Amino acid sequence: MHWASVSDFFAMGGHGFWVWAAWGAALCAIAAENIFQAARRRSVLREVRRLERIEAGRSGGTEEE
Fold first, then answer.
1. 42 and 34 in contact (C-beta within 8 Å)?
2. Which of the chain's termini has less CB crowding within 10 Å, N or C?
3. Considering the domain boundaries, does residue 40 fall inside one?
């Protein structure tokens, strides 16, 4: 498909609003997923560190076999 100008490209033959809205929604969903994954990872790492501190306190800080 060939466009005569940049504005024709963005208009997408009259369907530009829907095309660019779909791209925007997809990019927002991907960005939100990355943000939520990073937040979940931080939460899990905090919980693991907390549990490790609790376990270290139970064993008196020494490793026993």
1. no
2. C
3. yes
pLDDT at 61: 58
Instruction: Give dist(CA 45, CA 48) in Å, integer.
Output: 5
What is the domain count for the chain? 1
- Domain range enclosing 54: 33-59
Counting DSSP H helices and E strands in the chain, the numbers are 2, 0
Domain annotation covers residue 44: yes
Mean pLDDT to the nearest integer, 11-27: 94
Nearest of 32, 33, 3 to residue 19 by alpha carbon: 3
The CA-CA-CA angle for residues 40, 28, 19, to 5°, reads: 155
